[in-house]
Sequence to fold (255 residues):
Amino acid sequence: MAIQEIAQAFNPITGVFGTGQVQFFSASGTWSVPPGIGKVRARVWGGGGYDRGSGGGFSLKAIYDLTGVTSVAVTIGVGGSAATPTSGGTSSFGSYCSATGGATASGVVGAGTGGDINYSGGLGGTGGAGGGGGGVASLFGNGGYGGANATNGGNGASGGGAGSTAGLAGGNGFLGSGGMSGTAAQGRTMNTSGLSPIFSIDFIGTGGGGVSTMPGVNGGGGGSDASTGARGGFPGGGGGNASASGAAGLVIVEW
Fold:
């Protein structure tokens, strides 16, 4: 599905591109070149892996010559899950740029290719069954790693999920803190991260990682406990242990 934003996007880092029109693709489709448009910029996130899954990659590409081009195929990578291949899928904007998805507990992270900017997702937690998911990559760099059993999630462009054990924390992302867990008496606090109050597509994929049964936020990796994992944050966050799903990828087109 594609949703078109008519208003110009607020992009404090990358600036408004072209006429300021923006289209979001959360499912595979086609971007049709509007009349009179000669340049386009694409942002691509790959899907997150399943069950201690690594985060998806990120790529940003500006194309300044659309001569003879009438449409571009857009592919969205699925998040890894029990019902799909366990690795996250690859997202792409035609043949211009792409971002692979993160694998499940295998040491393979998602990576951006072909763009002017390319970054990799964070590694899912390894070394035991209690690992958190890796964070997705974004404009601000590589995703944070998912914590192994009894290990905090790593900081990054988005944070990695914490491993299984009380008292841990998910990794911090560029824009938000990871989740925190305490004793049974203290309970758990929710992740503080999310999209900027002044929405900007520059800040997608910059959230914190989850902990215990908390999912990741805004691309952060899902946390884990001894028996239950949490899903990765959209877009492209890796799922925590115990069969938690990764988040699907995303493509944003500006012209």
In short: Residues 1-8, 183-198 have pLDDT under 50 and may be disordered.
